[in-house]
Amino acid sequence: MEHLLIPLLFLCCLALIGMLIWSWVSRAVAAATIHENEDTITGLHETAGERLEDLRILDTQVLALQAREAEHKKELLEVGRRADTHMAEWKTTEELRIRADAKKRSKAITHGLTQEHFAPFWITPELDPRDFRFVGDPIDYLVCVGSSAVSKGQQDEIAEVLLMDVKTGNAKLSKVQRRIRDAVKAGRVRFVVYNPDKEKEQEQNKEE
Known about the structure:
By secondary structure, this protein is mainly alpha-helical. Helix content is 72%, strand content 6%.
């Protein structure tokens, strides 16, 4: 039995040494794993910190953009208010100008119409107001000088026939009036008699 004791003790020592080595290796592996996990956790913390900083920067930028947008809206509202104010002032000024211009034109038109209607009485004493016949458009008057005297038997012929237009201020002849003047100067004036009854009789005679 004694010769077996020594091998058993040897085996026990080997087993103990193996257990110690296994324990040491296990602890070393565990320590390495823990260290690696700590590095991973530290890296995650750093990444999370960086992401959090990025989020803070983005949040700051968003707030800055919102502030700029609010400022732009305020500026647009101010521009719109100024535009409305200028438009109201312009409308008031323009309305006053238009009214003044319309009043001035109305006075000028009234004055012109008055002058036109009373022209036969103030143009010249050489013309008899009874010889004037108001036409209105495109000329104001047809004046047959001496027509009233002929109708009364005071004379036997018309001295002349006038196409007269009355102008006031800086008024000028219209294009039609100028062409009428040119036609008179060129002698392109005729006296025409139209009798619709005779026209009908001629048409009836032609049909028969």
